[in-house]
Amino acid sequence: MRTLIHNAVIVNEGHRFRGSLLIEDDRISEVCEGEGLPVTSPLSPLNSIDVQGALLLPGIIDTHVHFREPGMTHKADICHESRAALAGGVTSVMDMPNVNPPTTTAERWQERMRLGLSESRVNYSCYIGATNEGIADVPAPIKLFMGSSTGNMLVDKREALKTIFQFAADHNRPIVAHCEDTQRINQRMAEAKQLWGDDPSVEHHPWIRDEEACYRSSALAAELAQETGARLHIAHITTAREIELLQQTANVTSPLPEGLGGESAATITGEVCLPHLLFCDQDYAQLGTRIKCNPAIKTATDREALRQALRDGRLLTVGTDHAPHLLSEKQGGCARAASGMPMVQFSLVSMLGLVDEGVLPLERMVDAMCHQPALLFGIKQRGFLRPGYKADLVLVRPETWTLHEEAVLSKCGWSPLEGYTFNWRVQQTFINGRLAYDHGNIDDATRGEALTFGWRT
What we know:
Blueprint: E1 2-12, E2 15-24, E3 27-33, E4 46-50, E5 55-58, E6 60-65, H1 78-87, E7 90-95, H2 106-119, E8 123-126, E9 128-129, E10 142-145, H3 158-171, E11 175-178, H4 182-196, H5 205-208, H6 211-228, E12 232-234, H7 240-249, E13 268-273, H8 274-278, H9 284-287, H10 300-312, E14 317-319, H11 347-356, H12 362-377, E15 393-402, E16 421-431, E17 434-438, E18 441-442
Parallel strand pairs: 1-4, 1-5, 6-7, 7-8, 9-10, 10-11, 11-12, 12-13, 13-14
Antiparallel strand pairs: 1-2, 2-3, 5-15, 15-16, 16-17, 17-18
Helix pairs in contact: 6-7
């Protein structure tokens, strides 16, 4: 089947232009700029869609999600969370290994992939988790918890860390590291309990998981990456000080080449996650533990530094750290309330809001959410609107609407963004050439494909 999308505003590889795109079966066949239409073959029927000036973007690649399956399906599962992703214009996800049992062996990783391909409505992969005992050799990026937030996956022995970094270097696998210093956090939690009781209020969360805890761990990860030659992507950076660390260790003048859509020359890079771009510590007063996450949301000054670093490319990619919990599990304070929030369904419209505010250009947003994830992880034939690439794409249009609870598709049934008014709406999402989300309707027969990787050299 062929689908012609025409009269679109296409945003791709640093350019924005009026044009059309032709899908043949599961791939992009042609991309045309201007009013002219692609030359089409009469051999198969053509479904023509006039999108009347809607934005046509590559499908979003979210490299940081927690879909919770297996082991925590009372609050999330691959089916529900991938449906939420689809409704948000996210066409590919990379799922974290801290489930139950954790994805730390080749057998568990293979089972996880089978489960994902059976249930996921979007393209799917999952990380292999590192432990103090080592790392399994599977074709997946490595997730390293240097400050464990969920599950028993903390790697805190320098010898074990060095072994993992050396393995990554020798096998050309990228490491994505959660960097917080556990000793510092434990010390600060003990002090907080002495000052404010056994379950300190959530406003103290960034005091416990503070800048120093983040910086110590990130600095150690960068040191090990430099020693071994491993490629390191520091997950959910939250502080201005860590951005300075990236500048000192990147070994390049700028992490991005001339223009957008090109590959970063840096071997140590950073991710920023949506909650840390949207919220700051002043928001705890209103939103409480709904925005409690690890690492903690910090000051407005840190948030501004993150936004600026995303704009200029010092922070390379945007993820959501989509991490659902039931609201009952979010009760309490720093000690009791679970850390994490569901974000994948509203990441694109939230980021478009930041574009409207002038935080970053639209082209850089597409670069950070589509192009750079594909380049960084070597995801094959996705992340760009190019002939021959898989037809993963999303159409969005300006529309003012307010989020209410009933619109939340994540299994946990809530969002910290409830009551927020957005100015953009996802209209259609295509997965591998198939219209899988159409103006609020999900084609539940859709299944994603396994992401495949060609590790960059």
